[in-house]
Design a protein that fits this description.
78 residues; 3 strands; globular
Length: 78
Protein backbone atom coordinates (compact mmCIF):
# COMPACT_ATOMS: atom_id res chain seq x y z
CA UNK A 1 0.00 0.00 0.00
CA UNK A 2 1.49 3.35 -0.97
CA UNK A 3 0.74 6.62 0.72
CA UNK A 4 -0.95 9.37 -1.28
CA UNK A 5 -0.18 13.01 -0.49
CA UNK A 6 -1.83 16.24 -1.64
CA UNK A 7 0.86 18.96 -1.64
CA UNK A 8 -0.06 22.62 -1.55
CA UNK A 9 1.89 25.27 -3.44
CA UNK A 10 4.27 25.93 -0.51
CA UNK A 11 5.73 22.41 -0.46
CA UNK A 12 9.11 22.32 -2.19
CA UNK A 13 9.91 20.25 -5.25
CA UNK A 14 12.61 18.54 -3.17
CA UNK A 15 10.07 17.27 -0.64
CA UNK A 16 7.70 16.16 -3.39
CA UNK A 17 10.44 14.32 -5.27
CA UNK A 18 11.77 12.71 -2.09
CA UNK A 19 8.33 11.31 -1.33
CA UNK A 20 7.93 10.08 -4.90
CA UNK A 21 11.38 8.46 -4.76
CA UNK A 22 10.17 6.62 -1.64
CA UNK A 23 7.28 5.19 -3.63
CA UNK A 24 4.58 7.60 -2.49
CA UNK A 25 2.07 9.20 -4.81
CA UNK A 26 2.11 12.99 -4.59
CA UNK A 27 -0.65 15.11 -6.11
CA UNK A 28 -0.14 18.85 -6.46
CA UNK A 29 -2.77 21.37 -5.46
CA UNK A 30 -2.14 23.42 -8.60
CA UNK A 31 -3.23 20.45 -10.74
CA UNK A 32 -6.60 20.22 -8.97
CA UNK A 33 -7.55 23.66 -7.61
CA UNK A 34 -6.67 27.33 -7.98
CA UNK A 35 -3.66 28.10 -5.77
CA UNK A 36 -5.59 30.80 -3.89
CA UNK A 37 -8.30 28.35 -2.76
CA UNK A 38 -9.38 28.72 0.86
CA UNK A 39 -8.29 26.16 3.45
CA UNK A 40 -11.70 24.49 3.70
CA UNK A 41 -11.76 23.81 -0.05
CA UNK A 42 -8.19 22.48 -0.03
CA UNK A 43 -8.94 20.20 2.91
CA UNK A 44 -12.10 18.90 1.26
CA UNK A 45 -10.21 18.19 -1.97
CA UNK A 46 -7.53 16.26 -0.07
CA UNK A 47 -10.28 14.17 1.49
CA UNK A 48 -11.96 13.64 -1.90
CA UNK A 49 -8.64 12.41 -3.25
CA UNK A 50 -8.09 10.10 -0.24
CA UNK A 51 -4.79 11.81 0.42
CA UNK A 52 -2.75 13.28 3.26
CA UNK A 53 -2.57 17.06 3.02
CA UNK A 54 0.96 18.48 3.00
CA UNK A 55 1.42 22.15 3.78
CA UNK A 56 4.00 24.37 5.41
CA UNK A 57 1.79 25.12 8.36
CA UNK A 58 3.70 25.32 11.63
CA UNK A 59 1.86 22.31 13.01
CA UNK A 60 3.03 20.12 10.14
CA UNK A 61 6.60 21.34 10.44
CA UNK A 62 6.75 20.42 14.11
CA UNK A 63 5.36 16.97 13.39
CA UNK A 64 7.74 16.09 10.56
CA UNK A 65 9.24 13.36 12.75
CA UNK A 66 5.83 11.65 12.71
CA UNK A 67 5.84 11.66 8.90
CA UNK A 68 9.34 10.17 8.89
CA UNK A 69 8.16 7.41 11.24
CA UNK A 70 5.16 6.65 9.03
CA UNK A 71 7.35 6.32 5.93
CA UNK A 72 10.11 4.43 7.76
CA UNK A 73 7.58 2.01 9.24
CA UNK A 74 5.97 1.31 5.88
CA UNK A 75 7.15 -1.16 3.30
CA UNK A 76 8.10 1.83 1.12
CA UNK A 77 11.13 2.69 3.25
CA UNK A 78 14.37 1.41 1.74
Amino acid sequence: MSLRFFADHCVSNFVIQSLRDSGCEVLRLKDHLPIESVDAVVTAKAQDLDSILLSLMEVLLTSSCILRRIIKGSSLYK
